[in-house]
Design brief:
Strand content: 25-35%
Order of helices and strands: EHEEEEEEH
Radius of gyration: 31 Å
Largest sheet: 4 strands, mixed
Number of domains: 2
Structural class: alpha+beta
Length: about 160
Amino acid sequence: MPTAAPTPPPAPTARPVAPSPKRNALSEKNFGPPEYRRNTWVAFPDAGVPLETVVDPKYWVHVVRRLRPCDIIEVHAEDGAYFARLYVRAASTNGAVVMKVLEHHEWREAVAEVPSAYMVLWRGGIRKWGVKRISDEHVMKDGFDTKELAHAYVGELMRQFAA
């Protein structure tokens, strides 16, 4: 009579793992000054660089090695056109960076462009906004912090010469 194959021992029954108790309070090791966990950076894009370009990961290729997750970047357009605060969600040494815009403010000029003998233009980070006479390209005045202030100066010039 053939002998029956030995039956394997019963598999041990898996005991259910009790879920770890949820903490109802923040652990002290997960709390501290921001300087220990993240950096705050300030960036000044050149005049005319739109915010859409700034949030593109390729824009940060030269500084990505300095970034790390949780960093905050304050972006101030050189010409004062906008301000944004960015949150770095991921950054790696191969150039990949993932950012989220936390807030942004754009200042659109409410100044109507009127034909005049003067032009308002951005003159650079030191000279800022300026007013140039079109006929001889003489710079009448520069150093205005905003484009609106430069336009207001053009209005004053127009009133002076109209009187």
